[in-house]
Design goal:
By secondary structure, the protein is mostly helical. It is 73% helix and 2% strand. The chain has one domain. It contains 6 helices and 2 strands. It has a two-stranded antiparallel sheet with strand order 1-2. α2 runs antiparallel to α3.
Length: 178
């Protein structure tokens, strides 16, 4: 898959998810994301590794976002299946984000400090815009922004490192098979 297609797919998924959740149609985003992930998996050389990365990103995102919900810093008007946990659509966004690790963000795979800095800045910015659209409510702005900044400073490089580890494991398997 081409990097530009990857970026466009991510942007379409983000917009569909945020505006779907903000307009009481929270299934729209995950439906679009499922299609984007399926296309990504078909186009990748190592679909099993990519699927595992997508799953891990969902777990990481569910953990962080549920922590912020439990702390009362964020709340979600739509898509929450279990009270006190992150809604399914935000978890789907995390999963979609994982599809950008080997493409749109491949240039960051050896720049973990920069990834942490970018995560610390743009992670909270993304939630801020989601709140402006009405998809998320930021109940405690300062605490949420600090917490999101820390969470994204950890999670972005973590996802890149997991990508590196999975890539290395795939290379070792390919070399053994050859």
């Amino acid at each position: 898959m081409h990097v530009l297609i990857n970026i466009v797919a991510f942007k379409i998924g983000w917009v569909a998810t945020i505006f779907g959740a903000a307009n009481e149609f929270p299934l729209l985003g995950p439906a679009v994301i499922m299609i984007a992930i399926l296309v990504h998996l078909v186009a990748t050389k190592e679909p099993a590794q990519e699927l595992f990365l997508v799953f891990l990103a969902g777990v990481i995102g569910a953990s962080f976002d549920s922590l912020f919900v439990a702390a009362g810093w964020l709340s979600y008007p739509n898509g929450t299946v279990v009270s006190g946990l992150a809604p399914y659509w935000i978890i789907a966004l995390w999963m979609l984000f994982a599809t950008t690790m080997n493409l749109a963000f491949s240039w960051l795979k050896s720049r973990m400090r920069l990834a942490a800095l970018l995560g610390a800045i743009f992670g909270p910015v993304s939630y801020f815009f989601g709140a402006q659209a009405g998809a998320v409510v930021i109940n405690d702005f300062s605490a949420a922004m600090i917490g999101l900044s820390i969470a994204w400073a950890i999670s972005f490089p973590l996802l890149l490192e997991l990508t590196n580890q999975l890539d290395d494991a795939g290379s070792a398997t390919t070399e053994v098979e050859a």
